[in-house]
Amino acid sequence: MNAGARTESPSTSSVRIASLPGASVRAVAVGLLLVPVNVYWIAQMERNRQTAFPSVFSLFFNAVFVLLLLRGANLLLRRLSPRLAFRPAEMLIVYSMVCISTAISGIDFIQTLMPLLSYSFWVAGPENKWDTVLNPLLPRWLTVQSKDVLYGYYDGGASLYDPGVLSAWLQPVLWWSLFIATLLLVMVCLNSLLRRRWLDGEHLACPLVNLPLEIASPKARLFHDPVFWMGFGLAASVEVWNAFAFHYPAMPMIPIFEESIGQYFKGRPWNAVGWMTRSFYPFLIGLGYLMPADFLFSSWFFYLFWKAELVLSAFLGLDQVRGFPFANHQGFGAYLLFAVFGIWLARDHLRRVWQTILGVPGKLADSDEPMPYRLAALGALLGLAGLVAFAMAMGMRLLTAVGVFVIYYILSLAITRVRAQFGTPVHDLHFTGPDVILSSVFGTRAFPEKDLAGIAMLAWFSSIFRSHPMPHQLEGIKMQQQTAGTTRGVVVALMLAGVVGSLAAFWSFLHIYYGVGALAQGGRFNLWPLTTLDGWLKAPQGPQLASLPAIGVGLGFALFLQVMRMRHVNWPFHPLGYAISGNLQMGHAWMPLLVAWIAKATITKYGGYRLAQRSQPFFLGLILADFVVVSVLNIVSLALHIPCYRFVD
Predict the structure, then answer these.
(1) Is residue 194 a part of any domain in this protein?
(2) Strand, helix or coil at 15?
(3) pLDDT in tens, 222-271
(4) If you ran DSSP here, which 8-state letter would residue 463 be given?
(5) Three-class secondary structure of residue 52 per DSSP
(6) If we measure between CA atoms, which residue out of 426, 432, 435, 383 comes closest to residue 404?
(7) N or C: which end of the chain has fewer CB within 10 A?
């Protein structure tokens, strides 16, 4: 991608630089200093002020902005003392650490966990009967139950640093931080075991690393390209204009933001399309252009396919069946096929990895891997055992706990691979995790109350997958391999970012809420695990008979699409476009992806592959302009305590 990324200066040997790991002590130290600052910024943007939500899309704008600032500081440092300047690999390890901390503190991770620690004890009363129905099932060592401690948390105007308050939160925060560290350990071990097959054997490109690699490149060819500045100027002008229009309503907004179009479908069966919007976000158009053409086409096409399925269901009266057409289950089936297919393709590699672990002659060399295979396998097994033991300590049965984590890591592998292969901007899988699959396939009556409580308490990280750390781990490994020529030290840096990031996230939310009050600032945003558990306990249900066939339909249809792709070179429908498009987040992205597909198809048709490649800097400019403008606006808004133009509704 970036031949110049390994060169520091004319006087420095590129071979020597390539042999040095990006995860140097100083790079990791800078990353650890930036992680708490970044996490606090995320807490302010996504929860306290709700002005921007960087963690809902695959490429985190805050992390890209931090990398850009780091590059600017590095240019100054290079002028003052070239020997002290950071190498590209070092800047990218800092970027990866910021990405991991963003994923952990994001809207579908610790932000969903926070209400589970205390909310049911704060609002329990005779109306909801949570004191007798729900709260006895929640482990004391993982929750905060004292209303004296919670008064300041929910109403504000109190201090987190009162010794009694700190001691009440310390135990659950430490236990959950240990859980998160173990969760991340298993992810990085799996990435280490599969890295060679995915990145070297199948040459998965990880398209989302293109922009960070360009920013970190010493030659900075992107910033000398007029095509890039055309895209940057266009997107920046639009966003700056809209920012002024936000503060001065007399100015008309440029309509790039979401507007509901579902309202125009009136009467049955057309109104069954439900929530549907149109938008023209520049950064999503740019991200779409980086995707392979067939996958890009399939992403927006299958979004409309799902909407057509809803309309047809209403026309046939099938929408009266609860959950029909079971889009989540169909999506799970498609992802399941993709995970199994990926493991099947890697079977020879995994066999050789196993031989290496056993010490069989002819083993694979693993000295250049993020972790030795033996250590990675041991870490994955011990980590999984630790997670299952944690769940059992919560009161879950062994088989239920195993089922939760098996489903979770199957989906994690599929998401990581789809990001590595296609660079999809969204992969939310809203409510497609173990809680939905287990409760619908087997029914809630099949599980004792402790199992149901455990499934719900673990749904905070395993039910919506927008801010998933595992793809960022693999992309961090990819960038180090490409710029430093080695992945030494990456695992340590990523794990440290995870540990420090989780502690910083807990501190950030607690510090903010004890000041302003969680209820006043959206602290009740993610209550669905508790309300779901309440429904399970008060109204137990049997299995949804159509849920398992729906999984089979999703798997079978994805298999059909895959077979057709293998038999017909020009087959336009990609099975993973079908998998990712049936969830909520594609509603934000489908029209920008349609625009990107039209642009890419037109440029390729009339200008050929060379013009399509030459146009890529324009679309990188769209992405970076959006990211820079929204970052600056949010920092200024936070510093001056003024309202901020909201980036993506």
Answers:
(1) yes
(2) helix
(3) 999 999 999 999 999 999 999 999 999 999 999 998 888 877 888 888 88
(4) S
(5) strand
(6) 435
(7) C
